[in-house]
From TrEMBL:
Its cofactor is FAD. This is Oxidoreductase. The keyword Nucleotide-binding does not apply. PROSITE patterns: 2FE2S_FER_1, 2FE2S_FER_2, FAD_FR. It holds the Pfam family Fer2. Residues 48-150 form the FAD-binding FR-type domain. GO terms for molecular function: 2 iron, 2 sulfur cluster binding; metal ion binding; oxidoreductase activity. SUPFAM superfamilies: 2Fe-2S ferredoxin-like (SSF54292), Ferredoxin reductase-like, C-terminal NADP-linked domain (SSF52343), Riboflavin synthase domain-like (SSF63380). Keywords: 2Fe-2S, Flavoprotein, Iron, Iron-sulfur, Metal-binding, Oxidoreductase. The keyword Oxidoreductase applies. Residues 271-352 form the 2Fe-2S ferredoxin-type domain.
Amino acid sequence: MTRMSYPADLYGRRDRDRFWVAVNTFFTSVQRVRMLRSPVLPPVREVDRSADLVVRSVRKVAEDVVALTLAAPDGGVLPAWHPGCHLDLHLPSGRRRQYSLCGDPSDRRTYRIAVRRLPDGGGGSVEIHDEVTEGDVLKIQGPRNAFPLIPRDRYLFIAGGIGITPILPMVQAAHRAGADWRLIYTGRTRETLPFLDELAGLPSARITIRTDDTDGIPTSADLLADATPGTAVHVCGPAPMIDTIRAAFPSDATLHYERFAPAPVTNGHPFEVELKRSGRVLQVPPTRSALDVIKEEQPDVAYSCRQGFCGTCKVSVLSGDVDQRAPSDPPGDDTMLICVSRATKGRLTLDL
Ligand code: FES
């Protein structure tokens, strides 16, 4: 039977099934990219800081979204953070995932993150929803910031769904600083939008809540109406939304965004990876990453951000020439980040 194809909407959805596939890909974990009118990924300052934190509370904050409050076991002071920071969370299964801090930076004794449950994701969100409970101890690394709030007098913040997590502290900071700011917060329904109660404490005239069920899918014009000259626009949400905004972005404002999904592979070409330990040889097509292909063969392969900055997926290269595509993956190194880097040609043999 031929399946009917529908035009993709702003969120990249073609139909219900593909919607969930898209959600799966962009909400699997927290993944960071900042763009300052440059396609080059900026280096992220590494923070050599890990700690075991206790889960103080797990609270439902929207449909399929829970917020976790984390604290030091002794209730002590935690490292400071700024809006846009995230934590690397080491889950009991060994998975490592990244989540934006979405609490109050002035609260030095707790961190808060929020996680949307994605049944078809990489398993991290489901593990948190189904298995992490109050009293559990989780190892974290960070906080670190790949999506800083740029100092400016005028802001437009755009959040798509769970993308509100880094944006919420930014909005609150901009408001405290007396900046001229606007927030557009989009999602499928109000029930899916976390932290509406906290936004209710801010001037409602500055906030636009748009939900697809009542307002329809927003266009780039809807989202960028307030991107006036000199405005710093900070966006976090689904990759298709970010791509739509980028395509229509005015030249006299500045765009800073955070993806929840890897950017599409550009200038890709096919190559092979040989997994040394199994001897399997896999074909990596031009439009996919080595990680995506290897993950099908080895579901437990380590990864987190899928955008080349966290280092989780780094593997040793035993032979072959690597097209290094991440700033933290220096040319000449005999390792590669399999989420972004590729072969220049032919075959790579990896220590996997
Ligand atoms: S998964 Fe983060 S660098 Fe590859």
